[in-house]
Amino acid sequence: RAEFHVDDRQGRAFDEMAATIDARTADVRRNERRYRALFESSPLPMFVADLTTFEFLAVNDACLAQYGWSREEFGRLTLLDVRPPEDRLKFLAVAHALTRALGPDDRVNAGVWRHQRKDGSLFEAEVFTGLTEHEGRQARLCVITDVTARRTAERALLDSQEQLRRAQKMEAVGRFAGGIAHDFNNLLTGILVYCDLALADLRRDGVAPDATRTHDDFAAIREAAQRAATLTAQILAFARGH
Fold it and tell me: Given 28, 47, 116, 215, which is the most exposed site by the fewest CB atoms within 10 A?
């Protein structure tokens, strides 16, 4: 009878263990179905790639539409194939560094990369990645956002801001030059007036022994001042135009 009770307890324990395993297995299968449904229905391109070989293990429909390859073609590609040749060494370095740094539950923004479609065209892809497991293989799950339009708009905004800064700088230079030219023009006006008065005095007083030399000196001063006044007028016109 004691043996019967022991066997009975063992049987119940075995049944409970089996029920627990069945329940956990059912949970795992439900989670897998939920994951696959989310993966496939995501409007963003998503793919799973082997952690060491970089082979594509799974891609969703949005990924097929974004890159242009079929699911079978993706099965023959690696992560290197969706990048232009000149970016591949940089990708390998960053990928290995991320693999060492990431924990099992980490999800990180891996930055913006140039990705290549089947037809050779490029787009700017913001990549979010994390570690996962796919059919017993260590892998990385990546979510892709095409940010080409956003980045183009950002660059256009930066260009326009730079153009505005240059225009404001030129305007400030123009105002500064205009202020200096205006003050200088006032000085030249005074020089010209005094030259004219001196020349008028010489003409009124008649010819003295050194009158001719004095007249020529004042005439040379007036001519130089007049050339400076012409240059100042050009600077003022430039200032008004800016």
Answer: 28
